[in-house]
Design brief:
This protein folds into 2 domains: 155 residues, Aminopeptidase, CATH 3.40.630; 45 residues, no CATH class. Helix content is 29%, strand content 30%. It is built from 6 helices and 10 strands, in the order βααββαβαβαβββαββ. The strands form 2 sheets. Strands 1-2-3-4-5-7-6 form a 7-stranded mixed sheet, with helices on both faces. A 3-stranded antiparallel sheet has the order 8-10-9. The N terminus is likely disordered.
Length: 212
């Protein structure tokens, strides 16, 4: 007897509606998506990219926002980076949803959103925000071409990883530090270093920091 199996379902990445993203953000504890009125403002000025789960419903999503948008997260980035480093640029908000915290399932969404971001930015600034509670996603962002540039609160007390695309490192040996050692990483970042690579060790994720 021959058993016929259904083909595996692939995860589809596409634009999400505001309603679909609000459903994903309802269960999020991320300060970026609080209060709800701020989320609605983001949805008005940004593009929502999402990934469907194998069950055919949205499993993760993020918002691609102009850095000159009139929303709290964009204003916080402008204050930190300076207007001359943000004008005309775009940034990605943290991934929301049940599939937004696992690198192996989030990879297709980040690749699509980053490609769209590169197209819209047209050689201007490109950043991404990841809350420190989701540190396991940092290697995924590094593989996608982002570099860790700062660890600091955005528009709340919750610390975030701020990542920049297109960083070029100096041709010198890197300083390797465990991702868990945020104090020493933050010190080097403040001195003009950036984390561009990572590898896994028995002690966890280790970052390679270069002067940029």
């Amino acid at each position: 007897m021959i058993q016929v199996c259904d083909p595996p379902r692939t995860r589809q990445v596409r634009r999400l509606s505001a309603e679909e993203f609000c459903q994903l953000a309802q269960s999020e504890v991320s300060s970026v998506y609080r209060p709800r009125s701020e989320v609605l403002r983001m949805l008005t000025v940004g593009e929502v990219w999402g990934m469907y789960s194998t069950r055919g419903v949205p499993g993760a999503g993020c918002i691609l926002l102009p850095m000159d948008a009139d929303v709290a997260a964009a204003a916080a980035l402008r204050r930190f980076l300076g207007w001359n480093r943000t004008s005309g640029g775009y940034f990605l908000t943290p991934a929301a949803g049940p599939d937004g915290h696992a690198a192996e399932t989030l990879a297709p969404l980040l690749a699509a959103a980053a490609a769209r971001q590169e197209f819209l930015a047209r050689q201007r600034a490109r950043w991404a925000v990841v809350e420190c509670a989701a540190e396991e996603l940092i290697p995924l962002y590094l593989r996608q071409g982002f570099a860790l540039r700062a660890i600091r609160p955005l528009d709340s007390l919750a610390p975030c990883f701020l990542l920049q695309a297109g960083c070029l490192a100096q041709n010198v040996p890197p300083v390797w530090l465990p991702l868990a050692d945020r104090v020493h990483i933050a010190i080097l970042l403040a001195r003009g270093y950036a984390a561009l690579e990572s590898h896994e060790s028995p002690q966890g994720t280790v970052l390679a920091l270069y002067p940029v």
